[in-house]
Amino acid sequence: MLQVAENEIKKRLAFDNPWWAEGAVPQRFRDWPERAYLSGLYALVAESKVRRAAVLLGPRRVGKTVMLHQLIQRLIDDATQPKTILYVSVDTPVYTGLPLERLLALFREIHGHERSARLFVFFDEIQYHPKWEVHLKSLVDSHPEIRFVASGSAAAALRMKSQESGAGRFTDFLLPPLTFAEFLDLANRTKPDLTDLESILSQDKITALNRDFIDYLNFGGFPEAVLDDSVRGNMDRYIAGDIIDKVLLRDLPSLYGISDTQELNRLFTTLAYNTGNEVSIDELSKDSGVAKNTLRKYLEYLEAAFLIHRLYRIDQNARHFKRAMYFKVYLTNPCIRAALFGAVGPEDDAMGRMAETAFVSQFAHLAEIEYLYYARWAAGEVDLVFLDVGTQRPYLTAEVKWSDRPFQQPAQELNALLTFCKKNGIDQAAIATRSAQGSKHEAGIELRFEPIARTCAFVGHEMVEGILAMGWHPRSGIRFGNRATESDPRA
Fold it and tell me: Integer distance in angstroms from the first to the last C-alpha of the chain?
């Protein structure tokens, strides 16, 4: 059987790296709007003293390949020679079966690079290379002069393998779906001045921001859907075909040996419909028809693939349960539910859970998401509780309501929240509303009310753009250069 000739492989490498001849990445990547995370990733890759590969994680269609090309352009703009940069999309058929080491060797042969040459090597869709984590770790150990960057859509495998086999050699960098602040930027909506509270909290501004917020819930998580009218007009086909089916029917089955893809699909559909709700292993097993042991594995896969996030339950005294049988499930991207079950409007019954899902999704890329819980006991529930990393005691509680009733009747509407705060020595709480804003005191607790749309915009702006601008990536806790900041979000 004929083998692909070496000169054909070199031709393909030259085709995939047009900057070798033209000095710049293709125009379509330069024209695409940059995401707020690009600066953080660039700081990580450009750091010459760190002997690690950067592994770019994220779900499908959030812009990883575009970001890699924009990163390459930044390197070129900062005086990196174009011929010292290699980009390989590992799933390209002509590269099938080729070791990563061989691709690197061919790159060196093409340009005559010496062993000591400082190079930048990008492996896109690396999960399609067998035992990629072993090969990449070997490359990092053998070539300290080269900065390696890997990325892929099968975030479940990438995250697991990078943590298991790449300890000390890989740095994960998470690229989530669009935050609400990014959506406003990409959609050319009027982004509010988040420092001017008097202006942004005026009724007309909140009404307009709420309209944008509902658009974000329905199609705002994916850059293509925001920028392309044709994609936005066929969200069900786009989400189902390009994202869900490829993850549930191809990526996860091939990576984990799942034989019953319809079973996995039924489970995910059930979870998507119940985003923002408390569910139990017993209920899920009954409703989805999946055995409990299999169900637990599927939940881990879906969470690692960045399709869902689970919040675990604590009691009214902020104590953990020994067996985590109950949890709240959230889509990491609210518009997936809208694509599967129809767009939501401001008066729909699902709006409360969608608003809560959006709130949690703003935090999903931050390390603090690991310390976010909900409280529930026989007489009440608190939507969200942040626990201190060291003491595991609550320091902040929040309720998310697509309603202004809590502001109008705090004693009646927020009784469970007030009870929890008093039991745990918390003197203030945050309440996200539909449009009401202001502060009230009830039973010695300061209640701070703010519209959910403004809250989500603020979190996206401050916790992503602001922190990354100072050189810190919140998910990994990595600080770059001398621009260190406090990692505690309360600072």
Answer: 64
What global pTM score does this model have?
0.86
DSSP track, 185-206: HHTT-----TT-HHHHTSHHHH
Q: What are phi and psi of 63, to 5 degrees?
A: 105, 25
Buried b (16+ CB within 10 A) or exposed e, 245-280: ebbbeebbbebbebeeeebbebbbbbbbebbbeebe
Look at residue 364 and give its three-state secondary structure: coil
Cα–Cα distance list, 61 to 221, 302, 386 (Å): 9, 16, 30
- Predicted pLDDT at 239: 83
Per the listing, tokens 């998401």 go with 369
| Structure tokens, 349 | 């019954």
3-state secondary structure of 472: strand
User: 70: buried, middle or exposed (CB in 10 Å: 19+, 13-18, 0-12)?
Assistant: buried
Q: Which residue, among 80, 109, 88, has the nearest Cα to 17 in the 3D structure?
A: 88
Identity of the residue numbered 354: M
C-alpha–C-alpha distance, residues 433 and 436, integer Å = 6
Q: Pick the more confident residue, 467 or 210.
A: 210
**Alpha carbons 443 and 268: distance in angstroms, whole number:** 42
Among residues 162, 187, 184, the alpha carbon closest in space to that of 173 is found at 162
Would you state the structure tokens that stand for residue 230, as one six-digit string?
């044709």
Provide the percentage of residues in the chain whose pLDDT is more than 90: 60
User: How do beta strands 53-57 and 170-174 pair?
Assistant: parallel
Q: Does 364 have pLDDT greater than 80? A: no
Residue 147 and residue 361: Cα distance in Å, rounded?
Answer: 31
Q: What is the DSSP string of 398-455?
A: EEE-SSSHHHHSHHHHTHHHHHHHHHTT--EEEEEESS--EEEEETTEEEEEEEHHHH
Give the C-alpha separation, 38 to 426, whole Å.
37
Cβ atoms 363, 372 nearer than 8 A: yes
13-52 burial by CB neighbour count: b if 16+ within 10 A, else e? beebbebbeeeebeeebeebebbbbbbbbbbbbbbeeeeb
